Amino acid sequence: MRALVAAATGLAVAFAVVLTLTALGTPSGGTSPEPLLTTVPAHP
């Protein structure tokens, strides 16, 4: 029975976190105009 209560509590906490993050909305950020370096530069 304690395991069922613990599972229900964990589910309620996870649901509350999801609702809180949803209420806050998406962050207003931007992307960098410079591309990311994905290749290793050649060694001299």
Automatic annotation (TrEMBL):
It comes from the Bacteria. Residues 25-44 are annotated as: Disordered. This is SPW_0924 family protein.
